[in-house]
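Bug report

Summary: structure tokens for Polymerase beta nucleotidyltransferase domain-containing protein differ between web form and batch submission.
Environment: batch mode, default settings.
Steps: 1) Submit the sequence below via batch. 2) Compare with the web form result.

Sequence submitted:
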Amino acid sequence: MTEGEVLEEVKRRVRTRLKGRRYRLYLFGSRARKEGSPRSDYDLALLADPPLDLATLAELREALEGLPILQPLDLVELSWAPGLKEVVEREGVLLDEGREA
């Protein structure tokens, strides 16, 4: 899969599991800065309102782990990482935004 295809599938899987919820999904790190290589991992950050509970976050991570890619894919909930939140909102790329239904 190309990077674009991976990110489209990530967005689709997040939308499916967070339907009806408000959230922002970001790409950050080397891929967001266009400094990554084909082997670089995917650093994803999610800011949900209300914040995701552990069960929902685990379900979402499991869904993303099922992608047919070799690169690691990391997902963090920014509500639990306030220091990272500032960096991601400043330097990350907004991939998708969910709104309440």
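Above is the batch result. After comparison, the two runs are identical; trailing whitespace caused the diff. The two ends are 31 Å apart (CA to CA). Strands lie at 22-28, 42-49, 73-77, 93-98.
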